[in-house]
Structures are given as structure tokens and as C-alpha cells.
Design brief:
Blueprint: H1 7-14, H2 18-26, H3 33-46, H4 52-59, E1 64-69, H5 75-90, E2 94-99, H6 104-116, E3 121-124, H7 132-139, E4 144-147, E5 156-160, H8 162-175, E6 181-185, H9 191-206, E7 214-218, H10 224-235, E8 245-248, H11 251-263, E9 273-278, H12 281-285, E10 291-294, H13 297-313, E11 322-325, E12 328-330
Parallel strand pairs: 1-2, 1-3, 3-4, 4-5, 5-11, 6-7, 6-8, 8-9, 9-10
Antiparallel strand pairs: 10-12
Helix pairs in contact: 1-2, 1-3, 5-13, 8-9, 10-11
């Protein structure tokens, strides 16, 4: 049985020292290829399985990265996770994906579990502002990087300039001749949503339009179902105040608005122009391809992982950085 096989047995079978076996397992680049192959052959022949829990106790830290996201059902976070995994894999790290489901209690639970497991580091899109649970992780010495969130200089963060993204979306709609525009998104307590709304308002102000030219429809979640409800709300407004275009805080909401609009036999963009945000794969594949504000999703994940590695491997010389990417408007048929 593999449980009875130890590194001593592996060393004896391969004809090397215990230190060489340890290097093969933990620092393979330090071992000559021929010797490394001999040790790996012995491991396979004996069926040796390393005791990862014991190794973590000795090292004080595991080789696992915790990635805590708001909604694994949102393709934005799937693409972001791919970027994290690609970079983590190059350093021999594994990624544990945790879905907070936009629930502060679930987020707190996952952060507690990651601390118990002595995670190498935590990448997180937090539900709200910095919480006591997140502060506790940081105080324990575990590196934390905020993803898709800005931060102060006390920690690293990777984000997109959402205010600019909101300006791009609404400026585009204004250039298409729309003067009554709806904003669909929520909860407004989510920083990205409020920033995108602020950008939308800035674009209207720059065009000399009054604040009431923007109808704000707050949603309970950033999903397709909430988008359908928002679409129904827009359709039920009086004709003289009804928006002729909507800017949605993400593509899932935009897809929901699109579904509701089409089901009512209204045309897009003839009766209602729609702009989404994120530019997920489904945006281009929709019944009416969506105009969307593109975020570099995989790059966000890669940059966050790079920052975490910097902090984890050289904490004394590490300086916290806030990396901000610029969004890009991708125009398609939903506003053409």
C-alpha cells in the first residue's frame, strides 16, 4: 500500500540521498534530469504518495490559491479563473475556486476555510467593503489581492476603470441619437455597479442633458432573470418617458433585457437599443449580437496572480500596487 511507502524507501530504490528525493518533490529544477527521472521512476514503481498535509505543516503554507468570486455562473469569472490558473500552474500552484454567491456569510466561511488550510494566498472579488474576515486573513500573513476591485495602498488590486466603461457605453448611445437612456444594474452597493452608473451620469452631464434623462433600474442580482424583470419594467413605463436605450451593468443583465424585449415582439435596436458590459462569449452569440464594454478577463486573472506571487515570494521587499486596465467598447447589432 502507498501509505507504507516513505521517502526513505524511494531514496533506497533510486540510490540517492533523502535530500535529493526532497528536491525532486519540492525543487525539481535543482536536480539533474537523469537523477530526477530515476527518482520519479522509483516513486511510480513503489506507488509513493506524498503526505501533503504534513508537508504543509512543515512549510507553514500550502500550494493552494483560494479564488473567491461572486458568481461562478457568470462567464466573466470563468474566464478570469482561467487566467489565474494559467499563471498559478507555471509555479506549481493549484487553484481552489470558491463561489460566495454574493453572500457575505458564505464569503466569510470560505475565507475561514482557506485560513485553516493555510492557503498560499487569496484572490477575491469581495461582496462588499473590506470585512473583518478579510482583514483577519491579511493579518495572518496570507497575501490577499483584490480582483475586479480597486483598493487603497494597503493591499494589491487588479481592476478595470469602470467609470470610463460607463462613459463609453452611454456616450455611444448618445451618439446614436438616444436622449432617454436606462441604466440596469444592482445592487448599487456593489462598487463596480456604482462606478459604471457614475460613468453613465458623467457622459450625460458632458452632453448637457439633465439627470432625469437617465432612468435607473436597480436589480437584486447581476443575472439573466433580473435582466428579464428589468426589461419588463422598461416596457411598462409610459411611452413619453420610456428609455429608447439601456446600458446594463453586465452582459447577463443585457441578455435578460434582450430576451424580454424580443418576447414582447419589440425590435432591438429599433424599439430598444442595448449595451452590456464584460463582453462575455455569449454577447456576440446572442439572437441580436450585443454591443458590450469589453474587460480583459484573462489578463485580470493573470495580473492578480502575478501580484500575489510577488508578495508571497518576497514579502519584505514587496510594494503593494493597484493595476488598472482600460475597457474597450465593442459595437454590434444591438445598437447599430
Amino acid at each position: 500500500m502507498s501509505e507504507s511507502v516513505s521517502v526513505v524507501d524511494v531514496a533506497a530504490r533510486a540510490g540517492v540521498s533523502l535530500g535529493t528525493v526532497s528536491n525532486v518533490l519540492n525543487r525539481p529544477d535543482r536536480v539533474a534530469p537523469a537523477t530526477r527521472d530515476r527518482v520519479m521512476q522509483a516513486i511510480r514503481e513503489l506507488g509513493f504518495v506524498r503526505n501533503e498535509a504534513a508537508r504543509q505543516l512543515r512549510a507553514g503554507r500550502s500550494r493552494t490559491i483560494g479564488l473567491v468570486v461572486l458568481d461562478v455562473g457568470n462567464p466573466f469569472f470563468t474566464d478570469l479563473a482561467r487566467g489565474v490558473e494559467t499563471t498559478a500552474g507555471r509555479s506549481g500552484l493549484s487553484v481552489l475556486l470558491c463561489n460566495s454567491n454574493d453572500d457575505p456569510k458564505r464569503e466569510e466561511h470560505y475565507l475561514s476555510v482557506l485560513q485553516e488550510q493555510r492557503a498560499f494566498g487569496v484572490l477575491i472579488t469581495p461582496v462588499g467593503k473590506n470585512t473583518a474576515a478579510l482583514e483577519a486573513v491579511r493579518r495572518s500573513g496570507t497575501p490577499v489581492v483584490l480582483v475586479d476591485r480597486g483598493s487603497n495602498r494597503r493591499q494589491c488590486s487588479v481592476s478595470v476603470n469602470d467609470r470610463v466603461g460607463g462613459e463609453l457605453a452611454v456616450t455611444h448611445l448618445l451618439q446614436r441619437g438616444h436622449e432617454r437612456i436606462g441604466f440596469v444594474g444592482g445592487p448599487l452597493a456593489i462598487n463596480q455597479v456604482s462606478e459604471r452608473l457614475a460613468g453613465a451620469r458623467a457622459a450625460l452631464a458632458a452632453a448637457g442633458l439633465p439627470e432625469d434623462a437617465l432612468t435607473v433600474i436597480e436589480t437584486p442580482r447581476l443575472d439573466v432573470g433580473s435582466g428579464r424583470q428589468a426589461g419588463a419594467h422598461v416596457a411598462g413605463l409610459p411611452v413619453h418617458t420610456r428609455p429608447t436605450a439601456v446600458f446594463c451593468a453586465n452582459d447577463l443583465l443585457a441578455l435578460g433585457v434582450l430576451q424580454d424585449t424580443i418576447q414582447r415582439h419589440r425590435s432591438v435596436p429599433g424599439d430598444l437599443a442595448i449595451v452590456g458590459y464584460d463582453d462575455i462569449e455569449f454577447a456576440a452569440a446572442a439572437a441580436v449580437p450585443l454591443t458590450s464594454v469589453r474587460q480583459p478577463r484573462a489578463q485580470l486573472g493573470q495580473a492578480a496572480m502575478d501580484l500575489l506571487l510577488e508578495e508571497a515570494t518576497d514579502p519584505e521587499n514587496h510594494q503593494h500596487r493597484q493595476v488598472v486596465f482600460e475597457p474597450e467598447l465593442i459595437v454590434r447589432e444591438s445598437t447599430a
